Amino acid sequence: MGIDISKNFFDVCIKDVRNNPLFADQRYEQNRKGFESFDSDLVPFWKLSKGRMVFGMESTGIYHLNLYEHLRKNGVSPHVFNPIEINKKAKNRIRKTTTDKIAADLIAQKLITDARPEQQYFLKPNLYRLRELCRILYRLRNDMQMCKVRVTRDLDILCQGYDKMFKDNLSSSSIAVLKLAFRKTRFLDVTESELVKVLLPYYGRQSDAVKKAKKLITLYENTEPPEYMKEPLLLELHILITQFELLRYQKERIERKIEKSVNQMKTRIKSIIGIGDFTGGLILGELGDIRRFESSKQVVAFAGLDPVLKESGNSRRQGHISKRGSPLLREALYLAAFPASKSNPVCKQLYDRLRAKGKHHTLCLTAVARKLLMIVYSVLKNDRDFYIPEHLNNEENK
Q1: Whether residue 182 is found in the same domain as residue 113
Q2: Distance (Å, rounded) from C-alpha 334 to C-alpha 186?
Q3: What's the number of domains the chain is made of?
């Protein structure tokens, strides 16, 4: 059975091992009513195959998950194909027309030609939950970054040079100052003593707060934005600050849930220096069951960190990384690569060796990310904590 899934519907095609169609292409709705109708139509074919029917579907983002879980609860082990595999099969057709029904037919053909489809490892519910929590956190971080970009744009017009006053325009201390000084009725009309009072809890020492307040007052006195721009930009500035504070609260809430989930799983991934709760959770969720990878090369290719080989005649060289697979997995590995290149002896040695050869910082971090993924694979596959090799331990002690 080949199943092509879209947002609202799924198309089904059933064939025998000789590629003869047994069931006219049928479309069902992606809801409980559609699932019940699908189950009812499936009964005679299930009996005909004596319970040995093979199911296949294409991974379509989130849209295949409902039917996938429905089949799994009914004791079916559907094979989930990468869309690239099905697209490649579609390109081999003489006629280039592709519809949902044709796609279902192609998936059924794929099951026939693959005499022994690879074993399917279901992503456990706790990993699904963890992956979704990490993806929510990733989106929240992106939304927060967008807020910062828009705030910086508004401040560049309202108060040129404000971005040099704080490392982060939306840090807690900066937000406190913005709420005090950037008001519609009293735009930049603020005294030094008022600023000191607001800044003191963040700076601790009176002298530091006074020093910062004086710099801000000097900046305000030299500011002269267009009068017609003040009202709309001040309005947006306060809207963005409100959004950012809400996003920050939501981010902290999700982070606590991720930390709790990772701790409950008692995973060994946290034993790897450089990988924390968020990066570890994201890596676990995106990788799924580590048993589906037979080697570290496979897991590197899955992450899209494998170099693309370019060969022409006697010329043979490695190009950029393929960047296939989950972008979030690569993002997590890059996030972990920077601290790992400083504190993880294995990664630090690799980073320093490549830098000594004159390699660019980004290339070195990519190599560290790939090394980290290989370490993750080894730790999870062998179910043992990360350890620093003895020769590196001796070097560290020296």
Answers
A1: no
A2: 44
A3: 3
Judge whether residue 294 has pLDDT over 80: yes
323, 334 contact by CB (below 8 A): no
Measure Cα distances from 376 to 209, 302, 316, 328 in Å: 45, 13, 30, 16
DSSP line for 12-50: EEEE-TTS-EEEEEEEEESSHHHHHHHHHHHHHHHHHTT
Q: How far apart are CA 331 and CA 153, in angstroms?
A: 26
Task: Say whether both 139 and 63 belong to one domain.
Answer: no
Q: What is the pTM of this model?
A: 0.78
CA distance 364 to 224: 45
Same domain, 115 and 186: no
Query: DSSP strand E in the chain: where?
Result: 2-5, 9-15, 21-29, 56-58, 79-81, 307-312, 315-321
pLDDT tens digit sequence for 335-368: 999 999 999 999 999 999 999 999 999 889 999 9
- CA dist 394 and 385 (Å) reads 19
Judgement on whether residues 292 and 345 belong to the same structural domain of the protein: yes
Phi/psi of residue 190, nearest 5 degrees: -145, 145
Q: Mean pLDDT across the stretch 378-382?
A: 92
Same structural domain for residues 86 and 150?
no
Q: Find the CATH number of the domain harbouring 113.
A: 3.30.420.40
Domain extent, residue 69, equals 2-120
Question: pLDDT tier at 112 (50, 70, 90 boundaries)?
Answer: confident
> Higher model confidence: residue 118 or residue 56?
56
Same domain, 298 and 244: no
Q: Tell me if 254 is assigned to some domain.
A: yes
pLDDT in tens, 203-225: 989 999 999 999 999 999 999 99
263 within a domain of the structure (yes/no):
no
pLDDT for res 315:
53
3-state secondary structure of 194: helix
- Tell me: pLDDT of 59 over 90: no
Candidates 114, 99, 107; CA nearest to 64 is: 107
Is 106 in the same domain as 170? no
* 349: CB partners within 8 A, 6+ apart: 392
